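subagent[fold] <- orchestrator: predict structure for attached chain, return tokens only, no commentary.
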Amino acid sequence: MNAMPDDSAARSTTPSLFVVALPRSLSTAIFERARSALSLAAPAWTSAGEILNTGRWRMLAREDDGDRFTTTHEVARFEQWTRFLDDVVHPRGRAYKDVVQPFVCARWLALAQARGHAPRVLRVRRPLADVAWSMLEAGWRYPARAAATGEHDIDRLLSGLLRARDALSEPAAVEVDFDALMRGEDALAAALRRMYADVDGMDVDGTGIDAGDLRFGDARFRAHSATVLARRDTPRWRMLDARIRTLEAVAAQQAPLHCPLPSDESLHSRQTAIAGD
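subagent[fold] -> orchestrator:
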């Protein structure tokens, strides 16, 4: 879908929306349906609202996995990304999405909520074994950059995903369940109604945010959904799920998977130029 013109967004009084999810969680479909139903604009300079994913920036022609899943251990880069969000996120009339910078988004959204000018947050929840399966199939290993443990590549990828999931639980959000979306669009429509029930003039019970306007739709999507759900009966999926549970148990005995995030003051204590993920 094309982004709405900026002047339309400028006139909007609807609080902005920020969709957060781990990769491969239907986030683009969710983002586009929600944005359309809420009449929110998407940034024209990136696709699918992904303002932190340079692979989607229309001005660039390459992807860079080396600048994803940035953690607080990379102090300067982490601060650059949070300052970038300070500059580009509008509190009203826009819709945004992220799947590649969960630690940056979690901290920035939590701080923005504390300051009282955060967008509404929709969090997609999908089983981590599903996410890991899809990322391994795609050859995407960058979550391993955030691993807290693991001697092998797969365990490090799973550890990074666990930390990302835990980080995304920090900001207040309305959650939508991936499996419920597989069964139909009602779950997304219900989530949007809860998020925007306090907005005057928002037709939360009518066609503005109605399941009929959020249709994922066709036989192809239903067939894909059946394939995704069938994976969970395979030995490979069960192996991934068992490894995740083992890593969770080990982490619970040693230390929290969720690394401490810096305070608002420490994060913004230095002036840092933004280098344009």
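orchestrator: received. Logging for downstream: Residues 67 and 277 are 6 Å apart (CA to CA). The chain has one domain: 6-255.
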